[in-house]
Fold this sequence. Notes:
CATH topology of the largest domain: Isoleucyl-tRNA Synthetase, domain 2
Strand content: 15-25%
Number of domains: 6
Structural class: alpha+beta
Number of helices: 31
CATH superfamily of the largest domain: Valyl/Leucyl/Isoleucyl-tRNA synthetase, editing domain
Radius of gyration: 35 Å
CATH class of the largest domain: Alpha Beta
CATH architecture of the largest domain: Alpha-Beta Complex
Shape: globular
Helix content: 25-40%
Amino acid sequence: MSETNPATAEVAAPHRYTAAVAAEIEARWQDFWDADGTYAAPNPKGDLAGDPGLVARPKKYIMDMFPYPSGAGLHVGHPLGYIATDVFARFQRMTGHNVLHTLGFDAFGLPAEQHAVQTGEHPRVTTEAAINNMKSQLRRLGLGHDKRRSFATIDPDYYKWTQWIFVQIFNSWYDDEAKQARPISELVARFESGERAVPGGRSWDALSAAERADVLGEYRLAYASDAPVNWCPGLGTVLANEEVTADGRSERGNFPVFKAKLRQWNMRITAYADRLLDDLNELDWPEAIKLQQRNWIGRSEGARVDFPIDGEAITVFTTRQDTLFGATYMVLAPEHPLVEKFTPAAWPEGTHDVWTGGHATPAEAVAAYRAQAASKSDVERQAEAKDKTGVFTGAFATNPVNGEQIPVFIADYVLMGYGTGAIMAVPAHDTRDFAFARAFELPIRCVVEPSDDRGTDASTWDDAFASYDAKIVNSHGEDVSLDGLGVTEAKARITEWLQGKGIGEGTVNFRLRDWLFSRQRYWGEPFPIVYDEDGIAHSLPESMLPLELPEVEDYSPRTFDPDDADTSPETPLSRNQDWVDVTLDLGDGRGPRPYRRETNTMPNWAGSCWYELRYLDPHNSEKLVDPEIEQYWMGPRAGQPHGGVDLYVGGAEHAVLHLLYARFWSKVLYDLGHISSPEPFHKLYNQGMIQAFVYRDSRGFPVPAAEIEERDGAFFHNGEQVKRELGKMGKSLKNAVTPEAICEEYGADTLRLYEMAMGPLDVSRPWDTRAVVGQYRLLQRLWRNVVDEATGEVTVVDTEPDETTLRALHKAIDGVRQDLEGLRFNTAIAKVTELNNHLTKAGAAVPRPVAESLVLLIAPLAPHIAEELWRKLGHTDSVVHQDFPVADPRYVVDETVTCVVQVKGKVKARLEVSPAISDDELEKVALADEKVVAALDGAGIRKVIVRAPKLVNIVPA
Length: 957
């Protein structure tokens, strides 16, 4: 039969495994799995309760990161993680587990809203169409999801509980003594009873309703405050830092972006900073991801220090309180609330010209600089710019350790969102402060002795000297001296002195900021919040949830003159007055009253903060999740003290925000007694990326990769030579390959095998369509080892395999089992291929026990062909829940191993010996070998070193 003539081959082999056969098999088995409920994972109770035998098994909860249903659909890079979790889930089912594996959709997103703005089409319409398309694409891959549990975040039945969780967080506070969240009602009771003093010293009864709301707002875990944001009048919306270019303009539209203060909702995630750090130690996550979270949280120990000024104080946080004697000026963030208060009417006598910025008064200088800083993003302000900018406020503060009057500046490299928004500047020992001091002709005083030969006269230095392993110098006052101490000792001494004077204290600071939780958009979860006539926020009762999005005529935010910073957002929801202004009875005993709804929406992070819980009990309309069901799937257990999902797979790009937010929500829900697992994800695995070649013409524009012709190592498009580079796969780069295209040509099982065989799962790798055929041929050979291509009959024989085949089989079983457990799918496929090739080369009919084991080995990887062959082998039940083969140890161990014999360190013989040979036996065999005897040539033996069974080293006398 000719392999080079497809037409002839089809005639001679009508039952050959082809793309058409694969398509028919795959569609048929996918229909069967759906109808049979093959992948249904039973709960211990409730509407998803099922086979008690499955529930009695050890559970395994496997999750993919929430996909966003893009209108462009999937390319072959997207399913990498989905196929991997499917393979692992199938393997776990076959090794005796009750496996929960499903997939929903993170469906609130900006792309659908932008489409709605441009076309007027409701974002729900385009989003649901994208979801249906993605479901179809994923189904074709044969993914074994429990479809009863799927949902989208845009479903009101889902976001009802997102809103409910927000209400729980809003009605909670963090009890620092108990180290956990508690209901806000408990805090109110403490204020009422006098057990806890009311800030400001007044009694709770003496406060008005608005004053009480303000007090509680300082404690609530969800609170509204005036927050600095990136306001873009030209787009009419607030932008995330990532949406602002380095020159302070909008990435979309290139409009100016200004810093503005707007009333925004926030989550007090900072209250959980220590727990978020400490609990990382118990999670099975990549160390690189843990490090990113630790750095983002940014715990640092130091001291808070008060610098007196005009009868008050500017408070700074510093981790280098040992360098206080070297502070020669202060810098405040331009937005710092004390700037205006301490700015005098005129410049003090002797003010340097370089400090004033050319302005006639401090007020003018401050106003001009503030406007300049407002046009920069936080990222741009933190960039290591060569030229430092700032302006003197006209005020002086007192250095508390030596009484020196030091000038107070504002500069954009200090941010209000970090620390206290104020720093003490020690230019001799901080690079940025050094550059600023040089630019503004400020004193630079050495207080940490350099380890090099630069000396202690900092005025002669080219840069700052920073060290935690040096002596403190030039640091003594009337009643405290740090001279001669090391950094650690100096920190302890000065902190004790500050605390004794009442002007500072040792403290811990975090880089982590509270989570900005408002978006000025339409397509998001409405806040379950209304405001009364006094502007006090009230949460809606559960009976009024879900609060659904209203219809609006225009999805666009109102835009303004791009250069007019004195404007504020007008959200699409705010224009639906009938929805905004309502009369409600909140059940608080006050009866029906007029209220105004919150017109911001939640960020798209909200729905993905808790979706692992909804998968557990997706149809529960009475509770977030049934406690018994949550305990079964996610509760703490041996090796998982914080509980959580057993395996969570997704991209490393979500290392911080999504994972941090989800951990925060879990901890609040745990504290309030709603769930038993304080952590959402026990084991995290980051898959790599499938990349693709990008081809660019002479203008640098991408050209279609499918139209490229390769000649002599060069690449051409329509006759023009183009450049090739490796990059992302996507529509914009014209290099996307769809799963449908590969399935049409080879079948879904081939696509699954190829993506798993390309390399280690956690490593990025380039896509090569030409290489897909290798896995296609593996499946064809597998088929041929079971089915006669001419007749379609099964060819296996009911005989026992020979010992060589038994060894090949059980080594494959042992290796594949270990590889699948360790997510090493590429090496598992290599071992299956090796066994299949052994059977092919044998040239004889395959013994039934071997054929059945081979089908079971490949079943997690290529489920459709495995299901088909399993039935052809005479079985009437699905391959999905069969037991995975177990290796016989007798055949896993090599019959013999090669032992190297060295004389004077040189190899003189190689012996085939038993793996179980003892040191004494091996020594005798080695010394008797004729090549060893010849090498010794009668010389005596001083020493024999034996490392059975692989090494003998003989040292002649």
